[in-house]
Amino acid sequence: MLRTHELNVKQDVDSLFHPYTPLARQRETGPLVITRGDGVYVEDDQGRRYLEGMSGLWCTALGFSEPRLTEAAARQMNRLPYYQLFGGRANEPSIELSHRLIEKTRHLGMEKAMFANSGSEANDQAVKMIWYYFNAIGKPTKKKLIARERGYHGVTVMSASLTGLPGNHADFDLPIGERVLRTACPSFYHYAQPGETEAAFTNRIVSELEALILREGADTIAAFFAEPLQGAGGVIIPPPGYWAQVQALLREHDILLVADEVITGFGRTGQWFGCDTYQIQPDMMSLAKALSSSYLPISATLVSAKVYAGLTQGSTRNGLFSHGVTYAGHPVCAAVAIETLKIYEERDLVRHVQQIAPHFQQRLQAMTQHPMVHATRGIGLIGAMELVQDKASRRLFDPASGIVARVLSAGLEVGVIYRPLRDTMALCPPLIINSAQIDELFDKLTLALNMALADARHAGLMP
Ligand SMILES: Cc1ncc(COP(=O)(O)O)c(C=O)c1O
Fold this sequence. Notes:
alpha/beta, Aspartate Aminotransferase, domain 1, Aspartate Aminotransferase, domain 2, 2 domains, seven-stranded mixed β-sheet, four-stranded mixed β-sheet, 15 strands, 16% strand, binds pyridoxal-5'-phosphate
């Protein structure tokens, strides 16, 4: 049976339980069904084409039609579709992928890679490794984890507990337990006090972190989880000096640093990793998304030699390291990830980002000329705009007015996809985007904003 748009809508609203979706409204709005991809574009089941300004969920770095990735998957699928890593077994793609990842992160102190399937799982297993590590090295009181307001680390019970967004906790009975401590989000735009300089703001939030550590006792705190720049929390770019100060504090108190590079990894910020961009020396790293350009699910938790030595000690005591998922190091996903890394290198995608980012950032910054855009921020090929009803007072639109939602729907009408995070519009296009496509992205975004502005004026919300 040939699928039609009508059949898609009917079966979707009847049977598909959508993640991150207002469930009742889904029945009325129905789905946007994407059926094919072409470079930075996707097409829906009615033949409409969109420039995908979010790389799906911040993830399809190589766009939506890279033949080398589909061929790599087919080759591996035909040769060996599955084999596990438990009990010292291995498959060749996961060996090669771990080798390549460690080569790429050795300068950041990484030594070993454990695979999983999603960013959430990478963080979840990082937490288990941290607890196991401190038990193994004889510091069993070090258990608490510090994570930041607006941080995003995933949705499994533990990673959602680390996530610092209220929507991920409400009615899910999260965060779990007493082990997660919350510290400030480093957004000068949102949280600076009146008259505060950026340097004073940074000093203040780092002092608050220090006070938290002293209050709780460093001997109870195991690790600090953070994205080099916060993605889903609103594309929050850390102020200069923030990372240097935070790291000095963590080192002083023997607190491990987990860099969640699920969005920032593999060129997004104009360097291979966010850790390179912000001079972060982590103890562990979480990778996913662009690791395989998201053509197949795969994630990794990288650990330093020090952490791995502790885990080895614990495993000797317990007989084995009793953790791992069936699909960890799945050979087909690993083969696609290897091919992805090869393409990044062969095409020097990091350099491409460095070359194209100034144009992206200049067009982004120019959006502040629009009456609804109060501020923008970004780095590399990631950015965001703050939408306001009134620039002078920074008054936000009442969600009931539907104006922010209108910016999104108008975007779809003119053929561009981006992501609203509260009143922030995020942009994170595929890394392969070219200069003309960046212009198209911002021209369409401007059109969409003008359509929403017309509605806001019509409703008497703006002059
Ligand atoms: C920084 C970060 N960590 C973790 C995750 C969770 O990844 P996943 O959705 O693959 O579980 C995300 C997803 O957006 C993320 O942005």
